[in-house]
Amino acid sequence: MSADFIPVLMHLLLVAGVAAFILAGSVLLGRSGRKNEVKDTAYECGMPAGVVRAPRYSVKFYLVAMLFVLFDIEVIFLYPWAVQFREMVAESLLPLWSMVFFVLILGIAYLYVLKKKALDWNEA
Predict the structure, then answer these.
(1) What's the whole-number average pLDDT of the chain?
(2) 70 domain residue, yes or no
(3) Alpha-helix runs per DSSP H in the chain
(4) Quick check: is 72 in a domain?
(5) Is residue 63 part of a domain?
(6) On the CB side of 108, how many CA atoms lie within 13 Å of its CA?
(7) What are 17-53's pLDDT values in tens digits?
(8) Is 45 left (phi over 0), alpha (psi -120 to 50) or beta?
(9) pTM of the entire structure?
């Protein structure tokens, strides 16, 4: 065996020894669990078994919420641009065309959402 692998082998033996020591100490020093009827029942997220839970929300609720946040955040980007519009356009038309492109992409995304009927509550 090459002398380069001796430190790696020593490290592996040390790790295995520490793991064995910890497991043996846990078995020897740990108290055995006392079994009773309450501890053996199933535990599900803090709710006792058999309790009627609140109804689950439809996926549509979350989809509409995410779309609202998405479009709301995108519209928020329009406000700083609108405040500085005159100063920006006086220098160049690049900010105007950039925002036209942004609004065009936003409109295409909105049409896609409408086409997929993601905002229709009656559709399942």
Answers:
(1) 84
(2) yes
(3) 6-29, 59-76, 78-83, 85-91, 94-115
(4) yes
(5) yes
(6) 6
(7) 999 999 999 888 877 777 788 777 776 666 666 666 7
(8) left
(9) 0.49
